[in-house]
Amino acid sequence: MFWLFCMNGLIFGQKRELVLSLTDAIKLAQQQSPDALMAKHKFRSSYWRFRSFKATYLPSVALSATLPNINRSIESITMPDGSSDYVPRSYLDYSFDLSISQRIGLTGGEVFVNSLFGQTSNYYTDTTTQQFLANMVNIGFRQPVFSYNPYKWEKKIEPLKYDEAKRIYLENNEQVAIVTINRFFNLLTAQIEKEIAETNYHNYDTLYKIAKGRFNLGKIAENELLQLELNLLKAEASLEQSELKYNNNLFLFKSYLRIKGDYDIRLIIPVVHHFFDVSLEKAVAEAKNNTSPGLQFKRRLLEAESQVNQAKMNGRFDAQIYAQFGLTQTSDVFKEAFQHPLDQEKVSVGITLPILDWGKARGNIKMAESNRDLVQTSIEQERIDFEQNIYLQVMQFKMQKKQLYIAAKSDTVAKKRFEVTHKRYMIGKVNDVLELNNAQIDNDNAKKGYITSLKNYWINYYKLRKMTLFDFENNLPISVNFDQIIR
Q1: Using an 8 Å Cβ cutoff, are 246 and 191 in contact?
Q2: Domain ranges, residue 444
Q3: Angle at which helices 292-313 and 280-290 pack, to 10 degrees?
Q4: Does one domain contain both 72 and 29?
Q5: Residue 424: CB partners within 8 Å, gap ≥ 6?
Q6: Which tens digits make up the pLDDT trace of 320-333?
Q7: 436 close to 185: Cβ distance less than 8 angstroms
Q8: What percent of the chain is predicted at pLDDT more than 90?
Q9: Same structural domain for residues 275 and 165?
Q10: Is residue 290 located within the same domain as residue 183?
Q11: Which residue from 127, 180, 239, 280 has the highest number of Cβ atoms inside 10 Å of its Cβ?
């Protein structure tokens, strides 16, 4: 933090002062403001969700074992003649099972390979027997035939969700900039109002002292002297109010940017050095290609289609195939359990055929299709509104150039008028104090109006950036290094 402040112009004197431009404030807020940190945590959550999704399609390796299983009890067993009898049993067994499985997203099936080894020892009163079982390798697969395949749809939808999360992060970053601009200009306005109040107070104090001398010489009326005294009192009250407003906005600004330490903040007025044109067609095209709504529309349609497919597959004729081939052997001797293995095969086909469901499946399909149609209609309208909002924002931004020019010109004219009126009053050529008051009020309002126009310009520009995720000033898409965010 210290080095960042140094780069931004930290000045040490009798009291520490931090000089910030609008660009500095935005960068600082996008690094450490509460909204920026929340946006980072949300993106990291989306990232790890996507990583978990990708991991489900990688081979899964698992080891299961029983170490050991001891049983000493009296149990009911079936005798060779078919009768049952309770006999004492005492045995020890253990087993190891190593398996590797792999999902097949295209078909929704699963391929697996496993190897198993086990031993069982039976303890009787006069004899002990043991048996070894070795399943050297088993290869098999499970495949549903007509059921809904969630993996196929996940492979389409989950990457869209992750790309959407990236774009949402960029949009949140631009929203942080918009909030920062608001707080920056609120503080800047309070800073300028404080400066105006200080200047006005000193001016009216000087004018009041001069007016008392003129009044004693009989050159001005008492009414004019009283008016100047009233203006001085108002200027003093305005100065106190401006200091309170400044301190409040300073606290809000430092709190949002999380600036710690007893620093005075001095903001640099963000003058617009050059204007650039924004094409409506380019703004709409960039918004479709870069922002989250473009992906969101596609994702929602896929999710609706997935629900229709699920409704059509569930509750209908279904079949599942299971097949396994392996090599196995058993023996009383450990080594012989791995010699001359015997092959084993398992194949099963299970089917499910609903006979009567009273139209439940058909009803689910119709509901899913209606929901899909509703989503399509809603997205069509949202696309129209989306483009309309971009059009309005482009038009709003284009207006700012003329508004800013008018405000800047008004500020210059009002300042010049006040200076001329003030000088003429000081040398006695203007005796109407109301004319001086009007010139001062117009000068103050013009200066604050110029700051307001600057604020509107930058807010509208960053709103346009957020809606398009495109930097029109430098003519390139807005991007960040996502690898640094997930570290």
Answers
A1: yes
A2: 2-53+154-300+370-485
A3: 50
A4: no
A5: 430
A6: 899 999 988 888 88
A7: no
A8: 47
A9: yes
A10: yes
A11: 180
Return d(Cα 165, Cα 44) in angstroms, integer.
9
| pLDDT tens sequence across 404-463 | 899 989 988 988 988 888 787 777 665 566 777 788 888 888 999 999 999 999 999 999
Mean pLDDT of 94-122: 88
Residues 345 and 257 in one domain: no
| Structural domains counted in the chain | 2
The token duo for 151 is: 């993996």
User: Do the strands 10-11 and 17-20 form a parallel or antiparallel pair, or are they unpaired?
Assistant: antiparallel
Band of pLDDT at residue 125, cut at 50, 70 and 90:
low
Average pLDDT score, the chain: 87
Q: Is 148 helix (H, G, I), strand (E, B) or coil?
A: coil
Domain CATH code at residue 464: 1.20.1600.10
Q: Provide the token pair at 311.
A: 């409704």
Taken as a whole, the chain contains a residue count of 487
The DSSP code sequence of 240-295 is HHHHHHHHHHHHHHHHHHT--SS-EEEEPP----------HHHHHHHHHHHSHHHH
pLDDT value for 8: 46
The answer to whether residue 306 sits within a structural domain is: no
pTM of the predicted model as reported, rounded to 2 decimal places: 0.83
> Are 408 and 465 within one domain?
yes
Q: Helix, strand, coil: what percent of the chain each, to 5? A: 60, 25, 20
Alpha-carbon dihedral of residues 436, 438, 443, 448, nearest 10 degrees?
Answer: 140
Report, in angstroms and rounded to the nearest whole number, the Rg of the chain calculated over CA atoms.
40
> For residue 426, is it within any domain?
yes
How many CA atoms lie within 13 Å of 44's alpha carbon, on the beta-carbon side? 10
Q: Report which of 315, 320, 316, 337 is spatially closest to residue 328, judged by C-alpha positions.
A: 337
**Residue 430 to residue 416: CA distance in whole angstroms:** 16
Q: Is the dihedral of CA 412, 415, 418, 422 positive or negative?
A: negative
DSSP-assigned letters across all residues of 341-401: PEEEEEEEEEEE-----TTHHHHHHHHHHHHHHHHHHHHHHHHHHHHHHHHHHHHHHHHHH
Same domain, 234 and 322: no
In degrees rounded to 5, what are phi and psi of residue 285?
-65, -45
The residue written with tokens 């004197």 in the block is: 13
The residue type at 178: I
Give per-residue pLDDT as tens, 133-180.
Answer: 888 899 999 998 888 888 889 999 999 999 999 999 999 999 999 999
Tell whether 276 and 418 lie within a shared domain: yes
Residues 161 and 182 in one domain: yes
